[in-house]
Amino acid sequence: MATTTRYVFCVDGPLSDEARSAFLGMRITEAPRQTLIDGEVLDESHLHGILAQLQALGMTVVSVRPVPG
Questions:
Q1: In the chain, what are the domains?
Q2: pLDDT tens readout for residues 1-60
Q3: DSSP code of residue 15
Q4: What's the CA gap between 4 and 11, in Å, rounded?
Q5: Is the pTM higher than 0.70?
Q6: What is the torsional sign of CA 9, 14, 18, 24?
Q7: What are the φ and ψ backbone dihedral angles of 29, each rounded to 5 degrees?
Q8: Rounded to an integer, what distance in angstroms lies between the CA atom of residue 45 and that of residue 47?
């Protein structure tokens, strides 16, 4: 049985509408200078896919961390 891990991705600046639509199903929280995107990640391949999508959208990734629990 596969288990998912919740991750929080912190990126510089706000997300465009295009970026928001790329992360449907994930929670997006905007702070003054950064945006937090969090949600379930299926496996390492999925994690790398999310990072590639952020890069393709021109976002600067500040941090990526799994959420314990």
A1: 5-66 (3.30.70.980)
A2: 468 999 999 999 999 898 999 998 999 999 889 999 999 999 999 999 999 999 999 999
A3: P
A4: 22
A5: yes
A6: positive
A7: -125, 120
A8: 5
